[in-house]
Amino acid sequence: MGEQAAEAVDMTARARMREAAMRLFAEKGYAATSVTDIAKAARVSGGLIRHHFGSKAGLRQACDQAVVAELAQIKEQNLARMAKGLEPILDRRRAELGRYLGRSVLDGSEFGAQTFRNGVDLLEQYFRANPVTGVQDVRGFAAAVHAFTIGTEAMYEVIAAALDADPDDPATLYRVHHVAAQVYSSPITVPGIAEVRPGVPADQEGTVA
């Protein structure tokens, strides 16, 4: 086998290990996933994983970097489509990446926390430039919207199951995103809730530790 061919095989194995890790981290969480689990899913040895990534933590870092890069590429493509009046592309891959991000946030990883904060920062900038009627706590609103988005992506398969729908069917993905968009455009509120101010209700003062 030539040097270039060997390098190509090596990169293919590396990508396979990373993809297996991304899937398992999203499904089970980082702590519950072992190097052995990843090696089995990628059809390689645990030693090969350590050779390429050094440790499970090193592999997670590689996954984090790959997810950020791919999401940036998808965002760029969708912005270009929207500039032409076309709808953004929604596919299972985007859902998988979103699920990975959601799990990272729930796992309490530094990457997940920072990625979530970055998303809130961007949404806050957007909502300050494009105010939403009745919203005074812009930062809080941005955080809630981002949490809703991440939660929907992280729980995609659970939502599909609740709908008795096939998560691998593109129609299911579009259905979930369409309903989520309806929640944004037609929020369900309790009468008078918009007038409620942050803080502890007067009748509950002193009851919160």
Automatic annotation (TrEMBL):
UniProt DNA-binding region: 34-53
The lineage's top-level taxon is Bacteria
GO MF term set: DNA-binding transcription factor activity; transcription cis-regulatory region binding
**Native organism:** Nonomuraea jabiensis
Keywords for this entry?
Answer: DNA-binding, Transcription, Transcription regulation
> Which InterPro entries does this UniProt record tie to the protein?
DNA-bd_HTH_TetR-type_CS, Homeodomain-like_sf, HTH-type_TetR-like_transc_reg, HTH_TetR
Q: Which residues form the HTH tetR-type domain?
A: 11-71
List the protein's name: AcrR family transcriptional regulator
> PROSITE patterns recorded for this chain?
HTH_TETR_1 (PS01081), HTH_TETR_2 (PS50977)
Q: Does the keyword Transcription regulation apply?
A: yes
Q: Which ranges does the record mark as transmembrane?
A: none
Is the keyword Transcription in the record? yes
